[in-house]
Amino acid sequence: MLASVGLLALAIKALPLGIAYPVWTGIGAVGSIIVGVTLFGDHLSPLTWSFVALLLIGLIGIKVTSSH
């Protein structure tokens, strides 16, 4: 967790907090889902996977459309 917060601190040196924080939390959310599925055998419905995909699309959109 310390490494994650440290990387966020580095990110806000180059990006506004309003961009860096949502991307940071989104990566954490998607990462948690992937770990749950791959390591712990969590089962997600196709509808849930579609919302995970929407989250990824949103994160990419935030990053691509930011001015930094």
Shape: flat
Distance between the termini: 26 Å
What structural class do helix, strand and pairing data support? mainly alpha
Rounded to the nearest angstrom, the radius of gyration is 14 Å
Give helix and strand order, one letter per element, not per position: HHH
Number of helices: 3
Number of domains: 1
Range of helix content: over 70%
**Overall residue-averaged pLDDT value:** 91
Strand percentage: under 5%
Low-confidence runs: none
Task: List how many beta strands DSSP finds.
Answer: 0
Largest sheet: none
Which helices and strands occur, and which strands form pairs?
Blueprint: H1 2-14, H2 17-40, H3 46-65
Helix pairs in contact: 2-3
Structure, briefly:
With 68 residues, the protein is mostly helical. The chain is 84% helix and 0% strand.
